[in-house]
Specification:
alpha/beta, 20% strand, 6 helices, 39% helix, globular, 6-stranded mixed β-sheet, Rossmann fold
């Protein structure tokens, strides 16, 4: 029997908060990686903030999804990796999956998985990551390095069971 998995696809806007109704190329790469990773019995969580235009990154990813998945869930509130972890933890409490697969860019995967692990601490859920091939930039690398300095402060907060705002489609 296949264990139930939660596949979490993290949004990316490249700090473009304009009125675009298109996904950033990095977000598209993450979405395509998730489509290859997903199985028909997985639950797919699209996590990404509301922005101008026609909806959130979560909405845009859900509309562009061509992969399998019995259930699609949207988190329109996450504006950061910390927010992604909070929303993921809320769904883990609800679904109790055996495994969470965090789909993001290779340069972001270690920190994202570390925060999700902290958020689901105490559950029996295993957390792994699946990396998308996406462009690297010096600014993204510097930002990622700076964000790592916050992880020791964020981990204890994540264990407190914050509530994410997820909506099932």
């Amino acid at each position: 029997m296949t264990a139930r998995r939660l596949v979490v696809v993290l949004g990316y806007s490249g700090r473009r908060a304009g009125a675009s109704d298109e996904l950033h190329e990095i977000c598209v790469a993450r979405l395509r990686r998730a489509e290859r990773e997903a199985r028909p019995d997985d639950v797919i969580l699209f996590s990404g903030r509301a922005r101008g235009g026609r909806g959130s990154e979560a909405d845009l990813m859900a509309r562009a999804w061509t992969g399998p998945g019995a259930e699609l869930v949207l988190d329109r509130t996450a504006a950061s990796t910390y927010g992604n972890a909070v929303a993921t933890a809320a769904l883990v409490r609800s679904l109790a999956p055996d495994e969470v697969v965090v789909v993001t860019s290779s340069w972001h995967a270690r920190r994202a998985a570390a925060l999700v692990r902290a958020a689901v601490r105490g559950s029996a859920t295993r957390v792994v990551s699946a990396s998308a091939d996406s462009p690297r930039s010096l600014s993204a690398a510097v930002r990622e390095l700076a964000c790592w300095t916050l992880v020791p402060l964020q981990r204890p907060l994540l264990g407190r069971g914050g509530r994410g705002a997820v909506e099932r489609c």
